[in-house]
């Protein structure tokens, strides 16, 4: 974690949990409250601090701007609201709780994590690990937890930073950073309230926060969702049937996928099975943006045999589509994708790639991230899915990287995802839409999602609070889950993964990864996953 190389003498404001200070970040610099221009008023339990001016250069220079901080004491903590104004526009605002004992952070999907001497930054929203909702706890030596949660009612990025003191790492600063919406730049940012409290029991705080989130995003109850088909409510096993790797290496062709379903149907009622198809369209990811069957896998006839054969058994089929990735060298990219390429809040394209071919350099540039808020891309993708659905009759469409969030000045990625799903379902309302990963703000958009992972170790969205996720959604294993025979992740770039079996919990559907040879090489392990599917059905499906 990078940091400033000097101590800034920010004015500290009193709260029952410790002193706090405020930083205001613009696109140009970072500013603090001018200690010579502060006004403090108290009205009952609320203290209001007005700064009629800001400082910069670590406090050495004065400048324009205004900040109002409202500190309201509650029976078990404090709520703090900040209104920041600067002529350059406000990018984000940091509220810092000072001089806390350094401890593990808690409230994450992956469990408690230690804070190294160099500090730790935890981000929201993150669909795969870290925070699915903006709440984080900092453990204290006495066993209590300092909990910070944002009371925002819309999806906006937050960062929680624990920064140990360089000369006394047993103490730290607990930073709560809220980003303004880059699509609505303004000189004024009304920061959603932060609530801080100290507790010996995290459960009541989680329950209170879950109630807030469910109301904020109008999350439907799982039992009442109209975008969940009846067959999904009887599904107890997702089978990941891997097709073609990026390199062109084939694991299962369409006939091999159908044969796998027939064999598994001898161990479990096929009506309990949903087959997920990564790499069904040919070279995995390489031609994202153009979807169709692949001749080496069996072509249109083979794909039709797969779907009709699965339906004869009673199983369901879910091919994979890229929600926000397209190959730059596809015809028409400059029209239906290029103007909507994803941007950071700075206005620049994020840089990132995957090591698809073991070249160890992450320097492929044929794929580009596209914001689904861009209508031409949305329509280009939706029309392909609808056309393929009408031609072949599969049961679900999986949207890859659907949980991607970026504070894009061109528009909300979350609102874009909602519009994409609505566009698909407008023409085929009976089609299940599933997606990759999850955070609270997309819970009502997509009912079925993949688990997350942290460096291929599965993370489950029903943790740490089952009520938040399971009340609305269900998950299945991420595509990086290893197969039980070889640990192969099939088409996924992880290569190999020792994790091949998931816990049996209501929010987590048992998942079996299959590559060529899996069923024959590890029948006992395959049987264990099938046993999990039987157990899931008995416990949760009736």
From TrEMBL:
This is Uncharacterized protein. It comes from Catellatospora methionotrophica.
């Amino acid at each position: 974690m990078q940091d400033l190389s000097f101590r800034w003498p920010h004015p500290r404001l009193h709260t029952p949990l410790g002193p706090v200070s405020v930083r205001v970040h613009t696109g140009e610099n970072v500013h603090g409250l001018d200690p010579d221009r502060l006004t403090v008023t108290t009205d009952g339990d609320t203290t209001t601090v007005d700064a009629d001016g800001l400082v910069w250069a670590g406090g050495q220079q004065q400048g324009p701007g205004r900040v109002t901080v409202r500190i309201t004491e509650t029976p078990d903590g404090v709520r703090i609201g900040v209104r920041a104004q600067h002529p350059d526009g406000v990018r984000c605002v940091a509220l810092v709780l000072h001089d806390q004992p350094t401890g593990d952070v808690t409230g994450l999907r992956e469990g408690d994590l230690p804070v190294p001497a160099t500090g730790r930054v935890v981000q929201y929203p993150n669909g795969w690990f870290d925070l699915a909702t903006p709440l984080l706890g900092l453990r204290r030596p006495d066993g209590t937890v300092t909990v910070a949660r944002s009371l925002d009612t819309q999806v906006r990025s937050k960062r929680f930073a624990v920064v140990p003191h360089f000369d006394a790492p047993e103490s730290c600063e607990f930073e709560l950073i809220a980003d303004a919406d880059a699509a609505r730049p303004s000189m004024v940012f009304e920061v959603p309230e932060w609530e801080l409290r100290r507790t010996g029991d995290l459960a009541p705080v989680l329950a209170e926060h879950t109630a807030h989130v469910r109301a904020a995003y109008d999350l439907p109850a799982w039992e009442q969702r109209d975008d969940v088909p009846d067959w999904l409510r009887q599904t107890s096993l997702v089978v990941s049937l891997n097709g073609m790797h990026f390199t062109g290496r084939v694991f299962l062709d369409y006939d091999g996928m159908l044969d796998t379903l027939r064999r598994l149907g001898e161990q479990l009622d096929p009506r309990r099975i949903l087959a997920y198809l990564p790499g069904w369209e040919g070279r995995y990811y390489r031609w994202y943006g153009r979807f169709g069957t692949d001749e080496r896998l069996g072509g249109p006839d083979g794909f039709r045999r797969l779907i009709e054969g699965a339906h004869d058994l009673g199983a369901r089929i879910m091919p994979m589509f890229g929600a926000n990735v397209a190959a730059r060298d596809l015809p028409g990219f400059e029209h239906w994708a290029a103007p909507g390429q994803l941007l950071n809040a700075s206005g620049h394209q994020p840089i990132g790639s995957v090591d698809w071919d073991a070249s160890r350099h992450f320097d492929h540039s044929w794929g580009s991230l596209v914001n689904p808020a861009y209508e031409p891309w949305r329509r280009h993708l939706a029309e392909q899915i609808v056309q393929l659905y009408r031609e072949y009759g599969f049961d679900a469409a999986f949207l890859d990287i659907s949980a991607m969030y970026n504070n894009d000045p061109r528009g909300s990625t979350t609102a874009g995802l909602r519009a994409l799903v609505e566009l698909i379902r407008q023409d085929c309302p009976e089609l299940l839409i599933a997606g990759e990963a999850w955070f609270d703000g997309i819970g009502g958009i997509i009912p079925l999602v993949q688990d997350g992972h942290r460096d291929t170790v599965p993370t489950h969205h029903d943790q740490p609070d089952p009520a938040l996720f399971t009340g609305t959604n269900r998950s299945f294993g991420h595509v990086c889950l290893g197969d039980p025979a070889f640990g192969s992740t099939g088409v996924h770039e992880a290569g190999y993964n020792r994790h091949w079996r998931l816990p049996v919990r209501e929010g987590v559907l048992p998942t079996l990864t299959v590559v060529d040879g899996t069923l024959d090489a590890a029948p006992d392990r395959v049987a264990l996953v099938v046993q999990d599917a039987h157990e899931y059905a008995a416990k949760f499906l009736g």
